[in-house]
Amino acid sequence: MLTIKGLSKTYRTGDSALKNVSLTVPGGQIIGLIGPSGAGKSTLIRCINRLVEPTSGQVLLGDIDLTRLGGAGLRVQRRRIGMIFQEYALVERLTVMENVLSGRLGYVPFWRSWTRRFPGEDIQRAWALLDRVGLMDHANKRADTLSGGQRQRVGIARALAQAPELLLIDEPTASLDPRTSRQIMRLLTELCAERQLPAIVNIHDVPLARQFVQRLIGLRAGEVVFDGPPEALDEAMLTHIYGEEEWQTNAPEEDDAPPAPAMPEARALAS
Fold it and tell me: Which residue from 203, 196, 165 is spatially nearest to 44, judged by alpha carbons?
């Protein structure tokens, strides 16, 4: 379980990226972070694994407060957090298998990582993950020969190779076509359910988030203004999160849009 208490981030310029964010993510639940650009979505994800240093607050993974750790202690705890990136962050010249095995680098001695000689159990784990994400036939291909959807599947397998207790996922479908985006989101939800793995997904595609995640967190100017199920996210709440002009710009033209179904009134958590 992940518990965030009063997390804030203020930069030296005085700009506040996060303001007193608190939430709990139980095992197996996928949370979608939505909100306009600059709302603090990526900052929140990066504060959890300390790629960005929070100004105040706590991040508890189980009973370990990640904000109090440094050096070797932080490196050990980061092994418990898998990260999936928008731009895949693969080593292009390495094979698919080698990229997946790089998820085990935090667990092996330096000489093994340097020579890329991994224990047999790590290799077996990598094969099983490649099978699960549908890339068994691509194991020996270089990463730079793959499509975007295949690269994202490699990134997912690499993150799971860590045997993480939490997944942080930053815009996993931003560079993908609609069909591939649905496939990737479906795969992520299935994998989290199979492993009872909590996950936080920073996602810009609201309809896609509504379709696949169990809970949505709406951020605006660094504050949580919505926390609830997708069915509670009506047009009024979307306008509250994104602002009238930006949301209406992204909406379909009135003549082309089907009648909107009645939705329960959403609850604002902050004004």
Answer: 203
* pLDDT of residue 73 exceeding 50: yes
Q: Which of 223, 225, 240 is nearest to 9 (CA)?
A: 223
- The domain 1-13+26-39+80-204+237-250+264-271 is placed in CATH, from the list 3.40.50.300, 3.40.50.280, 3.40.50.850, 3.20.20.80, at 3.40.50.300
Residue 194 pLDDT > 70, yes or no? yes
Pick from 55, 53, 49, 21: nearest CA to 224: 21
**CA 99 remoteness from chain centre:** 19
Label the pairing between strands 81-84 and 223-228.
unpaired
**CA dist list (Å): 236 to 14, 210, 244, 264:** 31, 15, 9, 11
Residue 219: helix, strand or coil by DSSP? Answer: strand
pLDDT in tens, 76-126: 898 899 999 877 788 889 999 999 998 888 766 554 555 567 788 889 999
What value does the CA radius of gyration of the chain take, rounded to a whole number of Å? Answer: 19
Amino acid at 239: T
pTM: 0.83
Q: Are the C-beta atoms of 23 and 217 separated by less than 8 Å?
A: yes
Token duo for residue 154: 């490699």
Instruction: Give me the count of residues in the chain.
Output: 271
